[in-house]
Amino acid sequence: MTKLDEKLRALDNPIDNKNLEIKKLVDEKKEALSAQHAAEANLKSLHACLKDDDSPTIESFLAPLEANIKMYTK
């Protein structure tokens, strides 16, 4: 019975490693999608500001982008 337990443990370790790799990939995908959504929102804001004929400052674009990134990553 101990040999079977050892074989089972030997098989479980690679499976656990694969599960961790999958979790890391899922987390990276979520972060990438969050950044994409924040960038899209920022571009929409930029486009709206450019229609107003006012020259927006760089800070007016960075602050919402940073806020969106923080919002989507949480």
Offer a quick outline of the entry.
By secondary structure, the protein is mostly helical. The chain has helices at residues 2-51, 58-73.
**What is the helix content?**
over 70%
- Strand fraction equals under 5%
Number of distinct beta strands: 0
Overall spatial form: rod-shaped
N-end to C-end Cα span: 46 Å
**Radius of gyration based on Cα positions:** 23 Å
**Number of discrete domains:** 1
Runs with pLDDT <50, length 5+? none
The topology string of helices and strands comes to HH
Structural class: mainly alpha
Number of contiguous helices: 2
Family: Belongs to the MAP70 family.
GO molecular function: microtubule binding
Main location: cytoplasm
Subcellular location: Cytoplasm, Cytoskeleton
Task: Give structural notes.
The protein has two helices and no strands. It has 74 residues and is an all-alpha fold. The protein has one domain (2-73). 1% of the residues are buried. It is found in: Cytoplasm, Cytoskeleton. Keywords: Coiled coil, Cytoplasm, Cytoskeleton, Microtubule. GO terms for molecular function: microtubule binding. Its main location: cytoplasm.
Summarize the SSE layout with pairings:
Elements: H1 2-51, H2 58-73
Helix pairs in contact: 1-2
Task: Supply database-style keywords.
mainly alpha; 0% strand; 74 residues; 89% helix
